[in-house]
Amino acid sequence: MNRGVYGAAAGMMAAQSKLDTITHNLANVNTTGFKSERVEFSEALERLLRGEGGMGDVLGTLGTGPVESQRYLVRSAGSAINTSNPLDVAILGEDGAFGVMANGQMHYTRNGSFTINSKRELVTQMGHPVLDKNGTPITMKGEGTIKVDDNGQISQGGQVIASLGIWNADTWQRVGDGLLTAPNAQPFETRVASGMLEASNVNAVEAMVDMIKASRVFEMAQKVISTEDEASQKLIQALQQG
């Protein structure tokens, strides 16, 4: 009988994990360049059931409850938002991320909302230096209007300064502050759009529907545990009376 309780408890933990993930996604529905996260589950252990005391034909399988099997970032690109700011740059397509330096380490971001700091370095809104194709921070050297062309080449007053460094990887991992990491990231060529920002790829309507489904799973698992508990109490009472 405890097997049912354990399975239902595992279901509650899985549903809570999914609810936490959806809540985090919804909280970032307006975060520039944010990539939503998904979590998948599988059976922790499946027992093969056989007849005749385990020596007969296979009758089926018996699960022991779900466990988290995979957690990943959804790569799909968010919609492009026109800002008309030449320092706002959006990567076109779902692949690639800008290289930035944060805490002495190279990271990546899809948030192309850049600015110029007091050292005339191109930085993110968090102050992280933006890197060129060689992994070097980009410093503005000239005067005049700053432009970024479709290939990520930056010029000021008609003088080419650097090219935005973009890297790509099979999978990205989030490290906070809108930054990503990937040990196998490689230099990547793609097109960008200046004066545009990439919106979050969170679909608020789909996320709300998923939240309702996960909440119902949690409630159902909770009821299973209550039912199992009531059944256990009745069994104990029957044994005491017998």
Commentary on this structure:
With 242 residues, the protein is of the alpha+beta class. The chain is 28% helix and 33% strand. It is built from three helices and 19 strands. Strands 8-7-14-17 form a four-stranded antiparallel beta sheet, with no helix packed on it. α1 runs antiparallel to α3. It is elongated and about 95 Å long.
State the major sheet. 4 strands, antiparallel
Give me the Rg, rounded.
26 Å
Oligomer: single chain
- Strand neighbour order, sheet with most strands: 8-7-14-17
Terminal Cα separation, in Å?
20 Å
Number of helices: 3
Order of helices and strands: HEEHEEEEEEEEEEEEEEEEEH
Poorly predicted runs of 5 or more residues: none
Mean of residue pLDDT values: 92
Structural class: alpha+beta
- How much helix, percentage-wise, in residues? 25-40%
User: How much of the polypeptide forms β-strand, as a percent range?
Assistant: 25-35%
Topology, number of strands: 19
Task: Based on Cα principal axes, name the global outline.
Answer: elongated
